[in-house]
Amino acid sequence: MTILFALLALVLIVIGALGSVFPILPGLPLMFVGYWWLAYLDGFTRMSLVSVIVVGVIAGIGSVIDYLATAYGAKLTGSGRKGIWLSMLGSIVGLLVASILGMVIGLVLGAMLGEILDRKDLYNAGKVGLGAFLGFAVGLVIRVIFSILILIYAVIQTIKMIASGVEGMEINWAWVKTLAVSLWKLVGGG
After folding, report:
1. How far apart are CA 12 and CA 138, in angstroms?
2. pLDDT in tens, 134-160
3. pTM for this prediction
């Protein structure tokens, strides 16, 4: 096991955490894969199979809540099937066309369009659009909270692995410094 693979697994977890804030990537599933990889590198000794299952359950529950929250928000405000389905379709199209802001706008407009097509009531369409947005916001908050939990747990476990002197996990500080300087230059720093 090398520190490079452990760092790559941590990078995957961090990318997953960013994907939880910016829903371009499947954040929680990526975090789970990164955590599983860390546990695998450790031979499931310090990071047991039970901890991998717990992280998987957290990631799974967070993902399901995230996907259902928008639909539930629209449903609570009286949305029909068309409003729910078009809000999901609108969010996907909006994401592809105009990134995160487009996703939110597409979600709201899709929910509103579905209600207009279903009931031809503009007031109710606005209410459903707001409900879909609030559901999305609740899902985002839950996704971020779950991501933070997984991120903190993974970092703590990785520090424990490195500190306990797992074979191949010794830190070569000169290499870390070279990597940090290279990354700094890559992103446009000094």
Report:
1. 25
2. 988 998 898 889 988 888 888 887 777
3. 0.70
